[in-house]
Amino acid sequence: MTAQVLPHDRVGTGEHAVLAVHGWLGDRTSFAPLHPHLDRSAFSYVFADLRGYGEAVDVRGEHTVSEAADDVLATADALGLREFSLLGHSMGGMVAQHVLLRAPERVRRIVGVSPVPASGVPFDEQGWELFSGAAERPGNRRAIIDLTSGNRLPGAWLDAVVRRSVERTDTRAFRRILDSWAKTDIHQEIDGNPVPVLVCAGAHDPALSPEVMTATWMRWYPNAELEVFADAGHYPPDEVPLALVARVESFLSA
């Protein structure tokens, strides 16, 4: 299927372009808590909606991370971005690695925020039932968000994230891309890649924990750095936006 230019917001006019890819449970608005704190003179951030999400909710496709990577590159081309860095949250971390495989000469740096490893995510039977049922059951989405943020955040926040997720995702696309990001394994293809990588993990995330990051991302990327946020789970853009922006922009400026 032909690559698509994705709906997007561009924040900043700086020379260093950063393409941001959202996670499974949210569209590009999930990065909104970061916007007020970004250095708009040094960076130009592009926040895009993948097919089946946000303003692209009705865009048909295969709904795979491979297709998403093609669309991210098409969006970069449409914006005239020859080189760029990538910022991927959760599922977006897997998409970023697919972009790297397609166009390594164009990728300056990668930031993964609670990112899915290149090996995908192994699920036991109970976990897979919870995640695969989330497309049709908002209660499953709430349980996932609560679990991965450490069962410690306000119920009103959980409800708001679930509401945004349900309202801004296509059920079929949401379910199909789960198979792709969870079950795709490209770690042998990226193992040893020299691109500079920053991995941001939340201490309260039991799923994509700092330990998982150490065993995957830190093992496969020789120029990787790990930042653990003590006061965050799986959602640092909501939980620690100031600390996240400061660390990300320090890394991107290095």
From TrEMBL:
AB hydrolase-1 domain residues: 18-247
Superkingdom of the organism of origin: Bacteria
Keyword annotations of the record: Hydrolase
GO terms of molecular function: hydrolase activity
SUPFAM superfamilies: alpha/beta-Hydrolases
Hydrolase keyword on record: yes
KW Hydrolase (keyword) present: yes
Protein name: Alpha/beta hydrolase
Organism encoding this protein: Saccharopolyspora taberi
